[in-house]
Target: Coenzyme F420 hydrogenase
Amino acid sequence: MHGIEETIARGMCIGCGACSAATSGAVRVTLNTNRLYTASLGDATSDQIRAASRVCPFSDDAVDEDALGAPHPSVGARTDRRIGTYTRTLVGSVASETERVKSSSGGMTSWMLAKLIDEGLVDAIVHVGRTASAPELFEFTVSRSEREIEERRKSQYYATTFAEVFQTILGEDIRVAVVGIPCFIKAARLLCREDERFATRITMFVGLVCGHLKSQFFAEALAWQAGVAPSELSRVDFRVKNSERSAGDYDFGAWRENDAEPSRQRTRSLIGGMWGHCAFQPEACNFCDDIFAETADIVFGDAWLPEYSADWRGTNVIVSRNEALDAILEAGMSSGEILVEDVGPDKVAHSQAGNFRHRRDGLAVRLADDIAAGKTVPKKRVEPDAHRVDRRRRRLIRQRRRMAALSFTWFAEARSSGDLSRFVAPMRREIAKYDRIAVPPWKTLAGAPAKLFARFARLVSARQAVMRERRD
Model:
């Protein structure tokens, strides 16, 4: 049995804070040395620990995503094994050029959150936003107006917890929508099952498509490479759009306290900036099989598809599971506020093809590896199978996990010594290993004969041209 005790012992706690909310703070959630939130059972009673385990998204005491399903089942809803239940699957963006450009993707998440308040479906939004309380740059907070939603828009790849804010909403007669990545939404749903007080207040769940969470080290590492040291960092923007590049090829921005403009660097040029390298990925993310926040009413992500990702302004994929939200989308389409089109679930799922390989195929291998090593693992909807993929893919999966673990060690050393190279240099070597696995030498050599022939043909052609000139 893999309960909350094993989850914490394995370093698999994601720090959501549902356990703390379920036990009125008896289970404490604090930042650890890797700048990730983690739970501590401390002096909690056995009954409190069992309650905490029932709301932990990585505990076998909690029901899984299939059992939880969509929060508000709709007539005619269908189910897809990749994206969960759905009533509509769409791709698009807000019509406003201004709003679209200043969003991380197509602006649809912020648009929907504002509509939830405007239409009276909720009184407030619980989501991650900027904070002035150093050293943390972001935290879960409550927005009650469109202006506050606007101030807290955009993706925040940063470890946070809703332990405190959930205790805050208990003190009010209020209906809220919670916005979060899949495991956080699952935890919030489990908390509502456990405690009726939360069920009466959390009435809508808005999910975000997730590749994996990041430690707070992620912001610091990118900022430091952009020239702003951790001790100087006051603000970041993880996705600064660049009109000369594609939607996925964005910049990272970092500010010191009094900077008018950020220090900017192309994200994919920074060590740790490439998502596939898994730098600062929590161990919990190695055991997640939910990509499209299957227990949310609606989920938003990036349309990482060739026909959309070339547009630097960004485009959303949307999976709706709620008829009331379908009506809001339909009204927005009719009024021209949003430019979205219905697409099939295949296209939506394909937008996260790499994520499925990492989360589903990779999970099968990681489960098998840990079971073979005698480690406890949670029961997942993916069966353990080290041979689900070929040998090269297994090596890639294991190298990603290795890089994630080592990134914490090396950045902690760099931070304590004040020497960024103690992170960058060894990570660069691991990335080189990763690249050799991802693109093996034989693939590079396979193209060599064709390249040599083309070069020879060009030389022959040039020689023939010279001879013709001489004859003429």
